[in-house]
Specification:
Blueprint lengths: L3 H9 L21 E3 L6 E3 L3 E2 L2 H7 L5 H12 L4 E3 L7 H12 L6 E6 L10 H15 L4 E6 L5 H13 L3 E8 L5 H10 L4 E5 L11 H8 L2 E5 L6 H6 L16 H10 L6 E2 L6 H8 L9 H13 L2
Parallel strand pairs: 3-4, 4-5, 5-6, 6-7, 7-8, 8-9, 9-10
Antiparallel strand pairs: 1-2
Length: about 300
C-alpha cells in the first residue's frame, strides 16, 4: 500500500497539497484502504460520504452545486459508499438526481434507510413499502445496495419487509441503525438474534462506547459496520480548534485533524466504512486522505485517546 505522500505526488505532483486544490486530484483507487463486507469478497473503500448535517442543510437550499461537486469528488478519488435516509430532508432526492446527472449512480454503493414508525410506535407496512419504492425512484437503480431500519424503528414490522425485498433481489444487504445510547442494548440484542448484514452506529475517538460490546460482536457475528458521526458532529472540531495536528500523527500518515479522527476509527478491524457528512469538496478530498497510507497500531491508538482526553 502506498503512503499518502506517494499518493499526493502521483495525483498532484511533488509538493502538492490536497487541501489547497482538491479539484486537481485524480483518482487512484488502488491506493485506498478497503474492507471486505463480512461473508463476501466485496471490498468497500474505508471512507465514504454521509448526507446528514451540513449535506442535508445544503440539500434544502436553492443552490446545491456544492453537493454535486462533493459527490463527484468522492467518486473521482475512488470512494463509493454514500449513506442517506428519507428522513434527511431533501438529501436522498437531491443526491439521487445529481448522481444520475453525473452518470455515477452505478458507481455508488448506495446505503439508505427505512423507518415510517413514530418513535416507540408501530409502522404501517403499506407506508413502509411506499417509502422503499420512493427511494428506488430517487436513486434510479433497480437494486439498492443496502437498506437499514433507521433507529431500530418497529423491527418486527420493518425488518421482515426488508428481508422480503432482499429475497426478491431488490436489496442486496439489510441492517439496522442507531446513534442513541438508550438503544444500544436493543441493538446488541438485535445483532444476536436477527440475520442482518450491517449495522450503523456512532463512533469516534472520544466516543468509544461501541468498542465495548457492539464492534466485537459485529466481528464475531460477521456483520458489517457503517460508522456515523466520526467527528461527533462538530464536537471534535471545537475541541481541537486552534491546535495543530501532532507531529507523531505522521507515523500513520495523518496530515490533518480529519484524517487523525478517521484513521482512529478505520484502525478498528470491525469497521467496514466510515461516512462523514460534508457539503464542501475540499473537506471531501481531505476525508479521502484518511483512506490512504498507514493506520495507527494499538499503542498509537492509546496515544491518540490520551491526547483527546487531555484536551478541554
Amino acid at each position: 500500500m502506498i503512503s499518502r505522500r506517494e499518493w499526493l505526488q502521483r495525483t498532484m505532483g511533488a509538493g502538492g497539497l490536497l487541501a489547497l486544490d482538491p479539484q486537481a486530484v485524480l483518482a487512484n483507487p488502488a491506493g485506498l484502504i478497503t474492507r471486505a463486507i463480512p461473508g463476501t469478497n466485496e471490498q468497500l473503500p474505508i471512507v465514504g460520504l454521509g448526507s446528514s448535517a451540513t449535506f442535508a442543510q445544503v440539500a434544502r437550499s436553492d443552490d446545491v452545486d456544492a453537493l454535486r461537486a462533493v459527490l463527484k469528488q468522492m467518486v473521482d478519488l475512488g470512494g463509493k459508499v454514500f449513506d442517506t435516509a428519507p428522513s434527511y430532508g431533501a438529501s436522498e432526492e437531491v443526491a439521487g438526481r445529481m448522481a444520475q446527472e453525473l452518470g455515477i449512480e452505478k458507481k455508488l454503493f448506495w446505503a439508505t434507510k427505512l423507518n415510517v414508525a413514530p418513535r416507540g410506535g408501530s409502522a404501517d407496512p403499506k407506508a413502509a413499502r411506499e417509502q422503499l419504492e420512493t427511494s428506488f425512484q430517487r436513486i434510479g437503480k433497480p437494486v439498492i445496495d443496502l437498506v437499514q431500519v433507521h433507529n431500530l424503528g418497529d423491527l418486527p414490522t420493518q425488518l421482515p419487509i426488508l428481508r422480503e425485498y432482499k429475497d426478491k433481489g431488490r436489496i442486496r444487504y439489510i441492517g439496522v441503525t442507531t446513534t442513541f445510547e438508550p438503544q444500544y442494548a436493543a441493538l446488541v440484542e438485535t445483532m444476536r438474534k436477527e440475520r442482518i448484514d450491517f449495522i450503523g452506529i456512532d463512533y469516534a475517538v472520544d466516543n468509544r462506547h461501541a468498542e465495548e460490546t457492539i464492534l466485537p460482536l459485529a466481528r464475531d457475528k460477521g456483520i458489517g459496520v457503517l460508522v456515523y458521526m466520526p467527528f461527533g458532529r462538530t464536537r471534535l472540531w471545537q475541541r481541537v480548534k486552534g491546535r495543530q495536528v501532532p507531529d507523531w500523527a505522521r507515523e500513520f500518515d495523518a496530515n490533518s485533524w480529519a484524517q487523525f479522527f478517521l484513521k482512529y476509527i478505520a484502525s478498528h478491524p470491525a469497521v467496514t466504512a466510515i461516512t462523514p457528512a460534508t457539503s464542501r469538496p475540499s473537506n471531501m478530498a481531505d476525508n479521502m486522505g484518511g483512506a490512504v497510507g498507514r493506520l495507527p497500531d494499538a499503542a498509537m491508538r492509546k496515544r491518540m485517546i490520551q491526547l483527546m482526553e487531555e484536551l478541554p
